[in-house]
Design a protein that fits this description.
heterotrimer; A: about 425 residues; alpha/beta; Rossmann fold; Arc Repressor Mutant, subunit A; 3 domains; 5-stranded parallel β-sheet; two-stranded antiparallel sheet; 7 strands; flat; B: about 550 residues; 3-stranded antiparallel β-sheet; 21 helices; 9 strands; Origin of replication complex subunit like (chain B); ORC5_C (chain B); ORC5_lid (chain B)
Chain lengths: ~425, ~550, ~725
């Protein structure tokens, strides 16, 4: 079954493309006013002119800040071999100054084939770093500090940032600090002494426009003709793909997708699952795959949770909702139980269970996180006394009850009546 | 979470008959010579032998679509993948499905559960140990391969370990392609499975840890690594302030009634009998809970009951027999519907010395259900009982009423006082009741407890005397002072027995405040055992 | 601190139960008004308390006690050792027998559940140490849990029980870990809990605790031969979240490690559910085991120790009642009862000069009672013969063999008494008549005297038996339990009756007269029922059968009557309370007040009194005369405390310090200063006066004294809000 193997290969190719951000963001490199060119200009100038510099890459998550940066650095490393050494830090890992400096020292050692010892104190590491900066400056070698999750470095004393930027004030050193953050006010987080030393270059990364999205999709999904895959298959594949992309329904799908979240990463996930839905028998992408992908990407957890509930848990939810409608400021399991009893007394429902079973249902709801406790204090108190609250809106509850099969009519009635 | 794979049972049976009979002896002498065989890279795949896709599907009823989706997302051999996020309620078979799929795919994986690995360090070290094929034993003093506490160290170590493993796999691939005999391990991808991710939110410093775990794929930038997160709660419960790169969600819904029926019917000896049993019980129980474990815990004793009239369990029941069995089962369904937890006490487990206690406690077996008996079934000294009662009063009654309820004469004339107090209580009865429902029992300082205790005992002493006929000669010098002797020891032991909980200290004065956690019927029982008129002292009751 | 320390921590190694006492002090030290309540007590108590706290072996106590002549000191000590060792071993045996069958049940259950676990398949070594859970079925995550109900709110008695249980299981090859609630504290969390577990199993301390370690350890132990048992002795005290975490963690490892939980539940089953959330509860499959309730244990102990005399020692009526009330009212722990018993023995031996004969008496051969102490033989006789119990029956001549005879029939009467009590107990067993009550009642002298009064006329007219025991019944109306027992006996069905008689026969073995009667009754019973049987066989005519049945009924009734008479007769003639027997003082302890004060004395008060009237303890000449005004020669702490008396509940540290300093440096001037409250001039004065004491040393003394006062719980240290004030928490005596 050769066709299946072909499809498999194509699938692997597409998947590896989707998992490789450099490839994904390469089309943005050509245009002159793209972030890519700006960033490359900044960096290369500071390399060539041997000056210190600092820049912030800001923008929401999944807009390819890091990818573009990677591309740029790659090119620069190609253009200026052994004139650049890159130090990468991540705020999630190195927000603590001590281990940040240690990490810098480690990477510097790796760069320059020095041996690194863990047991060195913070000050020694700092000294070492500054010394290395000076050395690199004398050797006309630019050190690039890439600080991912830059905002996390700004919390705390910012000693690291201060050291870096202060070291860069001296003429001898030659370094670039590149901060990457998804907080647009990242530079506002800096202390005065740090901010004064920081050159306020900012590059703003925005989610791609519709056209860009289209380009991106094409760029990713269209199979290359110059590959191991046989030519005719590739042609057929691309042809099918293109007329899918041209379809109105596909445009609608993309719109619904980008309405919720128009970032690249979201698109990538969408495309990934679409590709995964590809039927290997036929070996071509179909519009259905995209639809399935959309539904699997865009989920409504609360409604799913509601569907999972048992009847008793639904009763609990409705009771809580009734309590909330009555503007009862805060309530706990006991009051819910009271409400449940009153409902039972007034309507003689068939399923009326003992208190302990209801408590178990209540705890199930807590596990599903359809409800939660008001406060995280009062752990010493037992469950039934801690005030609780609903985590779902009336609309969701209503939807859930409507879509719940074999939902007791009484619950529907209650929820209809109370609105 | 999920607990349903029949083939694993079967296969394990076979493996035990084949491997674990001989390995047992082998392991014995290995333990004697204390050199367990070193782990190979084959230990990274699921232990048992390979299963086909069909018995994968059939072994996990009601999970067909999820299995299909997961297999698709994991993709063909050596294809990189975006991190997956598997979520769904408790006991919906998430863990088992993932494990079985990896068993089917024979791909190397590393599984860690954030429940067993209860803090970052244990989590990191367990991942690193498995990757570096390290096993804790006596030889290395049960220490792990690398000491690793910080995420920063973890990333470096993890990258090294992964690279070595991936290289091993590649080498393995080459020479296994030459001769297929060795190693059923396939592919050069390594998958990290992190289970019970929702627990990480309770860890301290999780503010950075969770985004880190989610971003691990982007940080590593190794295409040969696949990440699978398994969680009880949906992805929207993980949002931190600056968000994170979302993995691809895969949802495991709870089992439907039909799925449950299939699950329960699997590896039953007598399918017909059990299905007829399920027809009776499954629907009512599904209205309260749809969890496999809870249901099966409830069913197993019921099925025993159901089978009681039958002589042989092999028969397939006819209609009228079903009816008979049902009528036999009928009385037991409702009680077991209303209990969450059953204690089986075997008749042999009580010596004849405490037979009557045994069948007295027979009815307290239902947990959280109020036991129907009058006397408390454990020993408390009289003063402890009085303390318990006074603590109960102290946390039920408002402190302002103490003066009217217990005056110096010990409430001898507290009937009229009681009346006007109840009149006063009438208007904000509702509010007070709400408040009681909300806050639960109120707190009180130790002094108040002791004062109430003093009053009660001073009242009850002489009444006690003529109430106990036998002891009027005996209770000679056990006066008030006698009861007061070491009340504080009693308080502490009540605290230990969870009848009084020691709350936080009051902000105004440093004294700690207490709260009575004894349930009302417990207090009533104690009062009854003392012939103490609790209702007389209890505020609006 | 020295005197008070001596007062609340006994130095002697023997009464180790009293080691609870510092704890006791700290507890009572907490609030201010509690001890105010417990303050209305006689001041005499403190002396006695001090005495018993110091052990009898220390010379001080023996000289304080009424025993003057010195040489018998060692006799008493080894008499004490002897008696106590006997009683102690007896108690231990009793408890072991009570627990034995429950332990066996538990062991059986453990092995059973272990087999079921193994039967559903055990993973091999490679799998067992893997990290992913092995699941074999819907219920494979369940943990077998034994709930052991110690039907006592207090835990003290059962700590030992659980240790024994652990040993018992270990001896049968299980791997056992004994965890307590301290391992489940919220502070240490699950980490500490796992550490505890590993420490118990691996006997090693690891830097990071982890279940996988346990798994590999278990595999190394030879795989799947023995179960692992984890015993948690006090569930109520555990922190619920930690416990549930622990359970969930175990449930991930169930198949790989056959761990079986044994949880001690002190109160009720509901406690478990109140602690654990449902998602943790559902992993427990529970079995219930019930330990003997403290009441049962008490019965057994009383029976073994006090009724059937394991050692010669016995207690008087009031003491028995006091013990009973203490058990049922104060705290129902066997431990405290045993402690009380021990204190009683100690006091008895330290007070009663002739008590050293206990050893000889309880030995079988009562010949050489006083041969060990030939030195003060006349002394001994004198003492023996002016014992009140001897002088009561006015015998004029006093010589050796009378004493010997007296002692020997003291023993005999005690045996009679105990067998009679046992018979009563047997009769009343099924009917909620507890040994303790029966015991107390049968010890009551005046009840006995009432019986004895008509006992005489019962003897002088043989025919008047019925009338006399009628009167006796009259008498028995008012006294509770014996009468109830007799009523029970009267309407006892036949089967039970002969069983009862069998038991009686067992109990009265060795006492000829009762035994004979019982035998005779039994034989008559046999005769009766086989006669009835014969009748039933022979004449088949309905009427006769009915009639025969009828007179079988009658015979049975008559038998009951006979038995009743027998027991009444026993009660009347043989159940002689110990306190009515001459020479009983030698072996019987009757002083309730001392015991009470020793047991529930209150140490805070003692501390205060010692601090105020310290010169009674350290009998120094210097400060005994000066009434209540501090002298420099006094102990710092007591000076401080004396100074405290003139403050309110808040003490200004500065004033206090000044007056303290003054009283140390110069009492008289300080008194002048006390009149006009201005510390300023005093300063230069005493600086001018005394070079010898530097300011620093005074401050040092001051601060030390303050800490001691705080430690004894008489002060509360300055708070944030009022840094310059300490708070008095002890007021008035």
């Amino acid at each position: 079954m050769g066709r299946e193997n072909l499809a498999g290969e194509a699938l692997i190719l597409l998947r590896s493309r989707l998992c490789n951000p450099k490839f994904v963001f390469s089309p943005f490199s050509d245009s002159a006013d793209s972030n890519y060119s700006k960033l490359k200009f900044i960096l290369s100038s500071s390399v060539t002119e041997a000056c210190n510099n600092s820049v912030l890459l800001l923008g929401p998550r999944g807009c390819g800040k890091n990818a573009v940066l990677e591309l740029v650095i790659e090119d620069l490393l190609k253009e200026y071999p052994d004139m650049i050494s890159v130090i990468k830090l991540n705020g999630l890992l190195h927000s603590d100054d001590n281990c940040a400096v240690k990490e810098i020292a480690r990477q510097l050692c790796v760069e320059h084939q020095l041996l690194f010892s863990k047991m060195v104190s913070f000050d020694d590491n700092t000294q070492f770093m500054i010394g290395m900066l000076r050395e690199c400056g004398l050797a006309h070698k630019t050190v690039m500090f890439v600080l991912d999750e830059f905002d996390l470095f700004a919390q705390g004393k910012q000693r690291l940032l201060y050291c870096l930027l202060d070291a860069m004030q001296s003429v001898t050193s030659q370094a670039v600090v590149i901060g990457v953050s998804c907080r647009l006010d990242a530079d506002q987080l800096l202390e005065k002494r740090v901010r004064s030393r920081f050159s306020h270059r900012k590059l703003l990364f925005l989610p791609p426009s519709k056209e860009d999205l289209q380009r991106l999709i094409k760029h990713i999904l269209v199979l290359p003709t110059d590959s191991s895959l046989p030519h005719d298959y590739v042609v057929e594949f691309n042809a099918k793909l293109l007329n899918i992309l041209a379809k109105e329904r596909f445009k609608q799908i993309i719109d619904t997708l980008s309405n919720s979240d128009s970032t690249c990463s979201n698109l990538l996930r969408f495309l990934f699952s679409a590709v995964c839905h590809m039927d290997l028998k036929s070996g071509f992408l179909l519009i259905e795959n995209f639809k399935a992908a959309l539904s699997s990407i865009q989920r409504q957890p609360k409604l799913e949770g509601l569907k999972d509930c048992s009847i008793l848990e639904l009763y609990m939810l409705v009771c809580m909702w009734r309590l909330e409608v009555r503007e009862q400021d805060s309530y706990n399991f006991n009051s819910v139980m009271k409400e449940y009893r009153s409902i039972h007394d007034s309507f003689q429902t068939s399923d009326y269970y003992a208190r302990n079973v209801c408590l178990r249902a209540f705890e199930h709801l807590l596990e599903r996180e359809l409800i939660s406790f008001m406060d995280h204090r009062g752990h010493n108190q037992s469950t039934e006394f801690r005030p609780a609250k609903l985590l779902i809106s009336y609309h969701e509850l209503y939807q859930g009850l409507k879509s719940y099969r074999s939902c007791p009519a009484i619950l529907q009635k209650l929820i209809d009546r109370e609105r | 979470m999920g607990k349903e794979e029949s083939p694993q049972v079967v296969t394990r049976r076979t493996t035990r008959s084949s491997s674990s009979s001989t390995p047992n002896s082998k392991n014995l002498e290995t333990t004697k010579s204390c050199n367990p065989q070193p782990m190979t890279i084959n230990d990274l795949v699921f232990g048992d032998e390979h299963i086909s896709f069909d018995d994968l599907i059939s072994s996990l009823p009601g999970r067909r679509s999820q299995i299909h989706e997961l297999v698709r997302l994991l993709g063909p051999l050596n294809s990189p993948t975006i991190p997956l996020f598997i979520y769904g309620g408790t006991s919906t078979g998430k863990t088992s499905v993932v494990l079985q799929i990896f068993r089917y795919l024979n791909r190397p994986f590393v599984y860690t559960s954030c429940r067993t690995c209860y803090n970052p360090r244990v989590l990191f070290e367990s991942i690193l140990n498995q990757l570096s094929l390290h096993r804790k034993d006596v030889g290395n003093g049960y220490s792990s391969a690398k000491r690793c506490e910080r995420p920063s160290d973890f990333v470096n170590l993890l990258r090294e370990a992964l690279l070595t493993v991936v290289n091993n796999l590649k080498g393995h691939l080459e020479n296994s392609s030459s001769k297929k005999s060795i190693g059923r391990i396939s592919g050069k991808m390594v998958y990290l499975i992190i289970d019970n991710l929702e627990l990480v939110r309770e860890w301290d410093k999780s503010a950075n840890l969770l985004p880190f775990l989610f971003k691990l794929y982007a940080i590593l930038m190794l295409p040969e690594v696949g990440l699978v997160y398994i969680s009880n709660t949906s992805p929207d419960t993980y949002y931190s302030d600056t968000g994170y790169i979302e993995p691809i969600p895969v949802y495991f819904p709870d089992y439907t009634e039909e799925d449950l029926r299939q699950i329960f019917l699997r590896n039953q000896a007598n399918q017909k009998l059990y299905s007829s049993f399920l027809e009776v019980v499954l629907r009512p129980f599904c209205r309260t809970t749809r969890r496999v474990d809870e249901l099966s815990a409830a069913f197993s004793p019921l099925f025993k009951k159901y089978c009681e009239p039958l002589s042989d369990l092999g028969i397939s029941p006819s209609e009228e027999m079903k009816r008979r069995l049902f009528s036999h089962l009928q009385p037991h369904i409702m009680p077991s519907l209303n209990e969450v937890f059953k204690i089986s006490s075997r008749p042999s487990s009580e010596g004849e010395s405490n037979k009557e206690k045994a069948n007295r406690q027979g009815c307290t077996q239902r947990l959280r259900g109020c036991p129907a008996i009058d006397e408390i079934d454990f020993h408390m000294s009289t003063s402890a009982k009085y303390l318990l009662i006074s603590a109960f009063l102290a946390s039920r009654n408002p402190a302002t009423l103490d003066a009217s309820l217990f005056d110096s004469t010990g409430g001898s004339d507290n009937r009229k006082r009681k009346r006007n107090s109840s009149v006063k209580s009438m208007e904000h009865k509702e509010a007070a009741e709400q408040e009681l429902l909300m806050k639960g029992p109120g707190t009180f300082p130790l002094e108040r407890l002791l004062a109430i205790f003093q009053c009660i005992t001073s009242v009850e002493e002489y009444t006690l005397e003529e109430e106990e006929p036998g002891t009027n000669s005996l209770g000679v010098e056990s006066g008030d002072s006698g009861l007061m002797s070491d009340v504080l020891l009693q308080v502490s032991s009540l605290c230990n027995a969870n009848f009084i909980s020691k709350g936080g200290s009051c902000p105004l004065d440093g004294s700690t405040r207490y709260r009575s956690t004894a349930s009302e019927d417990m207090a009533l029982k104690v009062a009854r055992s003392l012939k103490f008129p609790l209702s007389k002292y209890l505020y609006r009751r | 601190m020295a005197p008070s320390a001596a007062a609340n921590s006994p130095p002697s190694p023997e009464n180790t139960e009293c080691n609870l006492q510092p704890f006791f002090v700290l507890h009572k030290a907490l609030p201010s008004n509690s001890e105010r309540k417990s303050m209305e007590k006689t001041a005499s108590r403190k002396r006695t308390r001090r005495r018993i706290d110091l052990s009898p072996s220390s010379p001080k106590s023996s000289e304080q006690s009424e025993a003057e002549f010195a040489g018998d000191h060692h006799l008493r000590t080894d008499a004490f050792r002897y008696v106590w060792s006997k009683i102690d071993s007896t108690i231990k045996n009793v408890l072991r027998n009570i627990n034995a069958d429950v332990f066996n049940d538990i062991l059986f259950w453990v092995q059973e559940s272990f087999n079921t676990t193994c039967s559903c398949g055990m993973p091999d070594r490679a799998k067992a140490t893997r990290s992913y859970p092995v699941v074999t079925g819907p219920l494979s995550k369940q943990i077998y849990t034994g709930l052991v109900f110690t039907q006592n709110m207090e835990l003290v008695d059962d700590l030992l029980t659980f240790k024994d249980l652990g040993l018992h299981l270990t001896s049968h090859g299980c791997h056992v870990a004994n965890l307590s609630s301290f391992d489940f504290s919220a502070k240490n969390g699950i980490d500490g809990c796992l550490r505890g577990l590993l420490r118990q199993f691996l006997l090693a301390n690891l830097d990071v605790a982890d279940m996988s370690i346990l798994a590999s350890w278990y595999i190394d132990q030879g795989n799947y031969e023995n179960p692992m048992v984890v015993i948690i002795d006090d569930m109520e005290r555990c922190c619920g979240s930690v416990l549930s975490q622990f359970i969930l963690m175990l449930s991930e490892w169930t198949v790989k490690m056959p761990i079986i939980l044994i949880v001690g539940v002190a109160t009720t089953v509901d406690a478990l559910s109140s602690i654990l959330p449902s998602y943790a509860l559902q992993y427990l499959s529970c079995h219930k085991f019930i330990l003997g309730s403290p009441a049962d244990r008490m019965e057994a102990v009383i029976e073994a120790v006090l009724v059937k005399q394991c050692s010669g020692f016995s207690v008087g009526h009031n003491v028995a009642i006091f013990l009973r009330n203490y058990f049922f009212r104060q705290d129902g722990t066997l431990t405290s009862f045993v402690r009380a018993l021990k204190i009683a023995i100690v006091q008895h031996i330290s007070m009663e000069p002739l008590s050293f004969m206990l050893k000889g008496l309880s030995d079988e051969d009562s010949q050489d009672l006083w041969s060990e102490s030939p030195v003060f033989l006349p002394e001994l006789f004198k003492r023996a013969f002016d014992l009140p119990s001897f002088r009561r029956n006015e015998l004029t001549e006093t010589n050796e063999e009378i004493l010997a005879r007296g002692l020997s029939d003291l023993k005999r009467l005690k045996e009679l008494w105990s067998s009679a009590v046992m018979c009563l107990y047997e009769a009343g067993k099924g009917h909620k008549i507890t040994m303790f009550d029966l015991y107390c009642e049968t010890l009551d002298p005046e009840l006995h005297h009432s019986r004895v009064s008509d006992h005489h006329l019962g003897l002088e007219t043989k025919v008047g038996m019925s009338s006399s025991d009628h009167q006796i019944r009259e008498r028995l109306q008012n006294c509770g339990f014996i009468h109830q027992v007799i009523r029970k006996v009267r309407d006892l069905p036949e089967v039970l009756l002969c069983q009862l008689l069998k038991n009686w026969e067992k109990h009265t073995k060795g006492i000829i007269e009762i035994h004979a009667k019982v035998r005779e009754l039994q034989s008559s019973l046999k005769f009766e029922d086989d006669k009835g049987l014969k009748q039933g066989l022979t004449d088949l005519s309905k009427r006769q059968k009915i009639q025969s049945n009828f007179n079988i009924e009658k015979d049975a009734k008559r038998l009951n009557e006979k038995t009743t008479e027998l027991i009444i007769w026993m009660v009347k003639n043989y159940m002689l309370p110990i306190e009515c027997i001459p020479f009983h003082e030698i072996i019987c302890f009757t002083n309730v007040s001392k015991l009470q004060s020793a047991l529930i004395g209150d140490p805070r008060r003692t501390i205060q009194v010692d601090l105020l009237e310290f010169h009674k303890i350290l009998k120094c000449k210097c400060c005994s005369k000066s009434g209540n005004n501090p002298l420099p020669s006094m102990h710092d702490t007591s000076i401080m405390y004396v100074l405290t008396q003139e403050h309110g509940d808040l003490i200004n540290l500065h004033d206090w310090y000044q007056s303290f300093k003054a009283s140390i440096l110069h009492p008289r001037i300080k008194r002048k200063h006390r009149l006009k409250h201005s510390p300023s001039p005093k300063k230069k004065m005493d600086t001018s006066e005394s070079r010898k004491k530097s300011e620093a040393s005074v401050q040092a003394q001051f601060s030390r004294a303050v800490t001691e006062l705080q430690i004894t719980g008489l002060l509360r240290m300055p708070t944030k809000r009022r840094p310059d004030y300490v708070q008095r928490v002890a007021f008035g005596l």
